[in-house]
Amino acid sequence: MGTMPMTRLIFTMSLPAIFSMTVLAMYNVVDSIFISNYDMDGFTAVSLAYPLQLLLIAASVGTAVGVNSLVARKLGEREYEQANAAATHGLVLCGFTYAFFLLLGIFGVRPFMEAFSGGNERVVEAGVQYFTCVLCLSVFSIVQVMIEKTLQATGNMIYPMLFQVVGAVVNIIFDPLLIFGIGIFPELGVLGAAVATVFGQFCGMVFAVIVLFTKSHKVKIQLKGFRMDRITVKNIYAVGFPSIIMQSIGAVMMLGLNAIFQAYSSIVSVDVFGIYFKLQSFVFMPCFGLNQGLMPILGFNYGARNKVRLYSALKRGLIIAMCIMAVGTLLMWTIPDVFISLFGNESSFTDVPQDVLLHEGERAFRIISLCFIPAAVGIIFTTLFQAVGKGFRSMILSFCRQLIILLPTALLLSVTTGVANAWYAFPIAEAGALVIALGFFFQLVKGDFKKLH
């Protein structure tokens, strides 16, 4: 990470992560397509309760990002024992994360669904089945994510890619078998999708644990005689906690938008937003894969005090991210109907006619996609702030984008011009966040980056 030509290094580090994140996006979308074609009420339930899954992702990925950043910086500073300690702490912290989501799965899912389902009992029961299973057995995904991020911090991107591919392939295979009851498998409907998801995560975690403890890596997990160190935990969450808050804000944003749609009795907007949130992952996941490869490069060269390579990685990362998002924008403008028509069929629709969903969805997709290219810049700057230990700035950036700007704008547009125009809040919010990101970056240029050579 300190000597390889930069463009080659970024692609070497990022392509496995981009591939694995694209596969992850694919199995999330396939999961939703199967559910929507079985029962559109089930898809509505999963869309409404998706913030619970976002909270799980936020807690597990946020903590793992903190470990990733600390391990990469300590390796760059050649403090190998501290890097080992950070990796070991990360694995132990998985237990605390899981305990919270186990309790949420047992006690929190039904009250959540009853609060946001608008009194539709079919939606409530589908959401309870799916998310009780996913949250109560979330330990598999939590441990897998931690191992992925730890290995990525050492520059190893192949194994993390394989962990995700294994989980995705298993999930895609078992989804139709368990949802529709094919062959010897029972017809479980929405619950079948949850079981397939958890089983895929279990297989990915088992593979990750085997690799972690049987292969040689630049960091070692040292559980024997382990003692929790307050300073190490503090350093992990200096980046990890803002990342958790930052991703949790996405859950709050979804809750807020769904509440606005429910207030205007716009169940079609709930379904459109659910479909969009699944499909946009095909655009955003490759960009997130890029930042997974970019973060250890930025963190290593910041730790090594190498300004030239730090700036070089940042510049190339920005160019690649904007190219990815430009392709996504083009697809959303040219063939949104093709994407939307994958979800549901005439027999699975109850409350929303398919042609209405298609018309509203095409318009919404074109409006929202205006935010993609500025979002690319924001994602790379967020990665930079996390990599150099300034995770709080990333948190502020996400807070402003998704809460301070987006939700009030969506509500204002809904009140003044109609709920159909709430989609314009996305590009407006992203433009505002970009201005803030640039301000934070120039503060770093005039401050911490002056100390680099």
Write a compact overview of the structure shown.
The protein is 81% helix and 0% strand. The protein is built from 17 helices and no strands. α2 (40-76) packs parallel to α6 (139-153) and α9 (230-263) runs antiparallel to α10.
How would you describe what is shown here?
The chain is an all-alpha fold and 453 residues long. The protein has one domain (6-451). The protein is built from 17 helices and no strands. The protein has helices at residues 6-38, 40-76, 80-107, 109-116, 121-136, 139-153, 158-180, 190-214, 230-263, 267-279, 281-303, 307-334, 336-340, 354-368, 372-387, 391-417, 425-446. Helix 3 packs antiparallel against helix 6 (139-153), helix 4 packs antiparallel against helix 5 and helix 12 (307-334) packs antiparallel against helix 15 (372-387).
Q: Helical stretch count? A: 17
- Largest sheet features: none
Strand content: under 5%
What is the 3D shape?
globular
Q: How many individual domains?
A: 1
Over all CA atoms, what is the radius of gyration? Answer: 21 Å
Oligomer: single chain
Q: How much helicity do the residues have?
A: over 70%
Average pLDDT reading: 88
The assigned structural class equals mainly alpha
The first-to-last residue Cα distance is 16 Å
Q: Would you count the extended β strands for me?
A: 0
User: Which residues form runs of ≥5 with pLDDT under 50?
Assistant: none
Q: What's the order of the H and E elements?
A: HHHHHHHHHHHHHHHHH
Secondary-structure blueprint:
Layout (H helix, E strand, L loop, with lengths): L5 H33 L1 H37 L3 H28 L1 H8 L4 H16 L2 H15 L4 H23 L9 H25 L15 H34 L3 H13 L1 H23 L3 H28 L1 H5 L13 H15 L3 H16 L3 H27 L7 H22 L7
Helix pairs in contact: 1-2, 1-7, 1-11, 2-3, 2-4, 2-5, 2-6, 2-9, 2-10, 2-11, 3-5, 3-6, 4-5, 5-8, 6-7, 6-8, 7-8, 9-10, 9-16, 10-14, 11-12, 11-15, 12-15, 15-16, 15-17, 16-17
